[in-house]
Amino acid sequence: MRAYQYPFSASASPLITSGNTKSGLALRALAVSVPLLLLAACGKHDGGGAPGGPGGMPPPEVSVVTVQPRNLALGFEYVGQTAGFKETEVRARVSGILENRLYEEGAKVKAGTVLFQIDPGTYQTQLASAEANAGVNEAKLNQAKRELARLTPLAADKAISQKEFDDAKSLAESAEAAYKQSRAQVNEAKLNLGYTKVIAPIDGITSIASKSNGSLVTASDSLLTTIVQTDPMYVNFSVTEADYLKLIKEVNAGKVSVPGKRSTNGSLNFEVKIKLADGSIYPVAGKMNFASERINPANGGFDARAQIPNPDGVLRPGQFVRVMLAGANLNNSIAVPQRAVIDAPIGKIVFTVSPDNKLAPRPVELDGWTNGEWVVSKGLKAGDRVLVEGFIKAHEPGMTVKPVPFVATAASGPAAGAPEGAPAGAPPAAAPAEGAPAASAASTPKTSPDAKSAKAAQ
């Protein structure tokens, strides 16, 4: 502490003169004694108070949780994209001029609804020609059959040669084959004429028409529109290789339990919820129904898919969403509230309260985040009491405190940016307690009010 400078010191006082010796001696004594008294008082305050609180105050009351191993809900979150349950291209099956669009773009249609009309004139002519050709062949067949019927008894009586009979029989067979061929051509012409009416192959929502009325539709440019079935919806996403390997390792070790058994298509029975672009949670949950057996080289993960009911049509194909998988449990694990963990220069720490109510910092290792809590893999054991609230009042190792059970409230819940249900492995950084700088709260005791006053005087 630097020396104090007073305006009534012996060297500066105008009252101390050679003509007033007694008064001068008294003032000299006063000038020397006052700084000493102040220094003694400052030294008393700088020395700290009783172990319980500053200046001999009672031990401060703090909130603590007593940790116990329990099964924790384990979730995973990935980026996904919605897709229709069925997505069908509507294509013209014959060439021609597009006469008319018969549906409202974006409307729901039923399977079999006529969507487009292609000019049928050419195909009506082809049908008439095929039917006429079939009639000619039918007449020839009937003639050949009559000739064969006439020659059959003659051949039996040996009235005609065997060759003449065989020729008549072959002619009847050829006429029958020609007639069948012409009937097939009639059927083909009917199909082509029917294809001039382009119908919806499935129920669903139509897209914009890719051809306008009067356009020429050809075999190489036949796409007219698309139809998407949106109830239910698919959500496609990719599971990272790191998550997959960690999950398999922990399942085999008994640390994690997963819902149900692995199905024949590779999927697990995870419950699936999705978070929309505005941050809201879609109210209807679905199920995971597919997981690939091989890594996709395009993204380095395993392709997976979930099926989500969409009765109100809120979801549309192509939306980017956050896919949240739930149903797995982290067995016999310890977790503490987010605000109990402090960032320190040595890493993550918590303050524990000993049986005699003394504060002690404890380094911990974290293994993810679940339901607003940090999962602690190392550093804590069953029965440890961990400080959650009261860091401003109690932050010095060895300090005596008065612990009371922590009661979670909305204000002390999960930190912003880490809503309940957020997956392990992707939490926000540990926050300093109650707005204090993390390093200061962990490594440097906060200055007591008395000490602050003494420093201000300096």
TrEMBL record:
GO terms for molecular function: transmembrane transporter activity. GO terms for biological process: response to antibiotic. It is found in: Cell envelope. One of its GO terms (cellular component) is plasma membrane. Residues 413-424, 431-445 have a biased composition (Low complexity). Residues 126-196 form the Multidrug resistance protein MdtA-like alpha-helical hairpin domain. Residues 232-325 form the Multidrug resistance protein MdtA-like beta-barrel domain. This is MexE family multidrug efflux RND transporter periplasmic adaptor subunit. It comes from Undibacterium terreum.
